[in-house]
Design brief:
about 525 residues, alpha/beta, Rossmann fold, Arc Repressor Mutant, subunit A, three-stranded antiparallel sheet, about 10% strand, elongated
């Protein structure tokens, strides 16, 4: 069984090249989120796989920072609309914290690359125009403008004008690049007209302009020797960017187009991510609530063109249940549902794993920690004891004491608790949150409910339970004797301890609390 990353690497190994260059790129039009940064994650995984199989490979990332601003990204003020149409590279930092608009939105991605062990060589589109990297290819494109225009027109409903050129200068008057049209070319000078009414001339060697996107993309492949590139599904549409750039690459620049890896968009709570609307979730935000491996797992657990929806709310606990299971199966701490599933789990985790050969991280169940943390607070030793009491530690840890944990295990334990704490603070819905009442709340209970609580208190006082399952079974026997439905019985427990009608799974919750406290509270003694 091979993962799709491995299959891509196998196909690339058939290419007759000295070194593979895996390209990724991102438009710096606002916050870089887990949707449009998939280029980076997929490219890194393919490059890593090629290296592991003995191939020479380089992963690059190109910032599309010379493109025009088309929408004001969230949370910038509306007055930033004065920069619409201008290249990102010419726009100031919105908060004055960085040297430019581009640096402001690049930095959060660069800050987390080490966390994901992503190795890439970054390039700036703006700098490439300024340092003459594109000059030779701009000249080739302008000399072949008629051929390029014919290629474009094959896929257009309305043909381009006969004097159209594949190059857009930055208007000297208004500073915009998406409102200019070049119409003549002589030596290195293009003449252009702008929608603002200005007519001017631009020297292509000045860097104050750019090739139209599909020509620029083909040019980059040639410049860097790109052999593979992941990109969003919009570029992969029939007659879209890749199809057109592929023809331009082969017919104009005499270069074989790279192996394409299109991927489906990631939605957020079912909604398309949008930088302008503020609908996005960044890798940096992910690391506040989950490990780097868990984001890798989210991206690589299914094929690239399969729809992926992310929700940081309650669905995140279901996702973390899956991740915890897969990780423990990989390290032989748990059994998979079947042999086939086991192989699948191990292969996905192998791709998602940050460091090969790393031992099993100490990551107790995420979902259970949302309960344990709310009981014990920042007392990590008490949280550990709650985990032991509820049989939540896998075989490698169940016989350990808190003092036996290694420095690395303590670091991993602390990190997961911090993730849980952040999730509860930022995304946890109200119904999963609770607080143990210090005093008996004022409430009215039926005689049956009071009798049930008293019998449960006596049971806990007289008998030791080493598993929530056994306590759960005996609780059901008691509620039947007292003529209570399970819902009413559990509500009585939650009301007495939490002052609310709902809470965590009752049996494990009770075992997580101090026994003397629970007995007294159920007897209404304090």
């Amino acid at each position: 069984m091979k993962h799709w990353i491995e299959r891509i690497a196998d196909e690339l190994k058939e290419w007759d090249v000295e070194k593979h260059v895996i390209a990724s790129g991102t438009s710096i039009s606002g916050s870089i989120h887990i949707g449009n940064s998939c280029d980076v994650f997929i490219a890194n995984a393919i490059g890593k796989q090629l290296k592991e199989s003995g191939e020479k490979s380089l992963t690059i990332w190109i910032a599309d920072d010379h493109d025009p601003l088309r929408k004001v990204p969230y949370p910038l003020p509306e007055n930033y609309d004065k920069y619409l149409g201008m290249p990102y590279s010419n726009i100031p930092c919105p908060d004055g914290c960085c040297g430019s608009f581009v640096e402001h939105f690049e930095k959060p991605l660069f800050d987390v690359l080490d966390d994901f062990k992503i190795e890439l060589t970054p390039y700036s589109g703006f700098e490439m125009y300024k340092n003459s990297s594109y000059n030779e290819y701009i000249r080739i494109a302008l000399k072949n403008a008629d051929k390029i225009r014919d290629i474009f027109n094959k896929y257009r409903e309305h043909p381009l004008a006969n004097d159209w050129l594949p190059y857009n200068p930055i208007c000297e008057k208004c500073g915009r690049v998406n409102t200019t049209n070049s119409y003549t070319y002589d030596e290195d000078i293009v003449s252009y007209r702008c929608e603002c009414g200005y007519n001017g001339n631009m020297d292509i060697t000045s860097g104050n302009g750019k090739l139209t996107w599909r020509v620029e993309w083909a040019t980059r492949w040639k410049i860097f020797g790109v052999t593979c590139e992941p990109f969003g599904k919009d570029h992969a549409a029939s007659g879209g960017s890749y199809d057109v750039s592929k023809i331009i690459s082969e017919e104009i620049f005499d270069y074989k187009a790279p192996y394409p890896v299109p991927y489906e968009w990631i939605t957020l709570n079912g909604e398309a991510m949008s930088k302008s609307k503020g609908v996005f979730f960044t890798p940096k935000q992910w690391l506040e609530i989950g490990s780097a491996e868990s984001l890798n797992y989210f991206i690589f657990r299914s094929k690239p063109m399969k729809h992926k929806d992310f929700s940081p709310n309650m669905a995140f606990l279901d996702f973390m249940d899956q991740f915890d299971k897969v990780e423990k199966v990989f390290f032989d701490e748990e059994e998979a549902p079947s042999e086939k599933e086991g192989k699948k789990f191990k292969k996905i985790y192998e791709i998602a794993q940050i460091q090969d050969g790393k031992p099993l991280p100490f990551r107790p169940p995420y979902r259970f920690l949302t309960v344990a943390y709310q009981i014990a607070g920042d007392n990590n030793e008490k949280i550990f004891e709650i985990l032991k009491k509820n049989s939540q530690l896998t075989k490698s840890f169940k016989n350990k004491e808190f003092r036996d944990l290694t420095e690395k295990e303590l670091e991993e334990f602390n990190q997961r608790i911090n993730h849980v704490k952040n999730w509860l603070d930022k995304y946890g819905p109200k119904f999963v949150k609770f607080q143990v009442m210090k005093k008996i709340p004022r409430l009215e209970l039926s005689d049956e409910a009071k009798a049930f609580l008293l019998d449960l208190a006596n049971l806990l006082d007289e008998k030791e339970f080493n598993s929530a399952e056994k306590l759960h079974d005996e609780m059901y026997e008691i509620l039947k004797i007292n003529g209570l439905k399970p819902q009413k019985a559990f509500q009585a427990i939650y009301k007495m301890i939490l002052g609310q009608k709902q809470g965590p799974k009752a049996a494990s919750f009770i075992l997580s609390l101090d026994k003397d406290f629970v007995v007294k509270r159920l007897r209404m003694e304090g």
